[in-house]
Amino acid sequence: MISFKYLTVALLLLSHLAFCQMPSRTPTPNDNLKSSEVLSNGDVVFRIYAPNSKEVTIGGDIIPWGQKIGGTKAENGVWAFTVPQVKTGTYRYHFLVDGVKVYDPKAPNANETSALIDVLPNGEEEFFAMRKDISHGAVSSVHYYSSSTQSMRRMHIWTPAGYNAKNSKLPVFYLIHGGGDSDLAWSNVGRAGLIMDNLLAEGKAKEMLLVMPDGGIDTKEFVLDFVNDLIPYIEKNYTVHTDADNRAFAGLSMGGLEVLDSFMAHPDMFAYINVMSSGWFANNEEMYKSGDTRLSEIASTLNKTAKILLFTQGGSEDIAYSNGNEMLKVFDKNEINYEFTEMPGGHSWYVWRHDLYNFAQKLFN
User: Could you please report the per-residue DSSP string of 160-211?
Assistant: First the structure.
């Protein structure tokens, strides 16, 4: 049976592909490979697709001390290893492919183990650099139960330096990642926590709570979870303001669509909104028809509540550029007040880090 998590991530990825044309390729056994499987008898099977490798082994603390687990290579290039009678618990594991340690590329959290490198030529991107001369906040991984999805869900939360020593209420900024990523993306490759640390140290931003939810579910389900479960969890468990003037909301790409659906469903909930590199799909007539109808219904409320409604793009090379521009014509038709900015850089974290840097300075003033 396909789990809810895998199904929703698959739906998100399929939706994200509508932004761009992907080159065709020949399918491989890796496409539908189940890389780890716990059998009913207590054995655990691990698999990796490595058709051109001469030697593959498996390691980690799931392997009993001093033992070596032999594997087999099928004709389709899939290596398989069976670890017998594994006791109940949580274990680390990795493959050794021709002597190189390889973490399971098919694991659910594989995209969270990517290596990172900071490229700072001549100090040009120092607004997201780790500085030693300032105080840094904390990024926490927080799990909560969602009644909307009937599952445990995760988010990452940045709190400013000294937050735990204070008792003053803070405004909240909700920030969503894009398709194929996770709630770790903004604090990881997006450098959101470091950007906020530096802005605060320079007096360019107000203190706030930065909440980075998991957007990896169907957009409509995201809206339900976000409004009915996530926001109430934040407002119950953190010392924050609970009114629209103290809520900001932003998201990139697929996260931008989730932002759109959220504020259009609840136009009185957010005073600061930034849709990054996103827009209704140009070939989806239903999106435009229903969007037009809904905007006509909420125009007066949205114009009154939203102090800033900002749309940003990565220039004409952004794969969502035409989608966003076509969508804004519907906003114009319904006389929605908004701002638009763009910068070269395409559909990339280079652009979105700048978007966060610029937008955060406008919040809660």
Answer: -TTGGG----B-EEEEE--TT--TTTTTTTT-HHHHHHHHHHTT-S---EEE
